[in-house]
């Protein structure tokens, strides 16, 4: 590293002026290792006749249209490809999320009001047929 000089001046003192002295090279303290993010229990893998409906974008997932209202869907509900299963808020814009498949909901995988990643499973559907 290059040479480092530090000048300190005291105001209000009667004399003095500038003082110079050399400072030894100092190494930065090592940064603590980041703690791993708390991970929710990973859902069990989908059966062969089930599909997970993924979040199409990153944001906050809401299972109901407004706080205090019933959720869009529940376990056991029949859904079609155009059924709204929730909304994802991105920068105050609410984006409806569609099931994209026809079948019966077997699991709700994302909690209401939580942040979700793009591709994260939101619900699991047992496919008709």
TrEMBL record:
Pathway assignment: Lipid metabolism; fatty acid biosynthesis
Cited SUPFAM superfamilies: Single hybrid motif (SSF51230)
One of the protein's GO biological processes: fatty acid biosynthetic process
GO molecular function list: acetyl-CoA carboxylase activity
A Pfam family this chain is assigned to: Biotin_lipoyl
Positions of the Lipoyl-binding domain: 50-126
Start and end residues of each stretch annotated as Disordered: 1-48
Composition bias type Low complexity, residue spans: 38-48
Keywords associated with the record: Biotin, Fatty acid biosynthesis, Fatty acid metabolism, Lipid biosynthesis, Lipid metabolism
Entry keyword annotation includes Endoplasmic reticulum: no
Superkingdom classification of source: Bacteria
CC annotations in GO: acetyl-CoA carboxylase complex
Keyword Lipid metabolism attached: yes
Bias (Basic and acidic residues) ranges: 1-12
Job of this protein: This protein is a component of the acetyl coenzyme A carboxylase complex; first, biotin carboxylase catalyzes the carboxylation of the carrier protein and then the transcarboxylase transfers the carboxyl group to form malonyl-CoA.
Protein name: Biotin carboxyl carrier protein of acetyl-CoA carboxylase
């Amino acid at each position: 590293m290059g040479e480092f000089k530090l000048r300190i001046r005291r105001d209000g003192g009667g004399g003095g002026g500038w003082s110079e002295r050399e400072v030894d090279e100092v190494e930065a303290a090592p940064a603590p290792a980041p703690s791993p993010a708390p991970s929710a229990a990973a859902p069990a893998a989908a059966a062969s006749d089930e599909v997970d409906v993924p979040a199409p974008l990153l944001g906050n997932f809401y299972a109901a249209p407004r706080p205090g209202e019933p959720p869009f869907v529940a376990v056991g509900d029949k859904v079609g490809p155009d059924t709204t299963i929730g909304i994802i808020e991105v920068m105050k814009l609410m984006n409806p999320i569609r099931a994209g498949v026809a079948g019966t909901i077997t699991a709700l995988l994302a909690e209401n009001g939580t942040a979700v990643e793009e591709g994260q499973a939101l619900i699991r559907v047992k496919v008709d047929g």
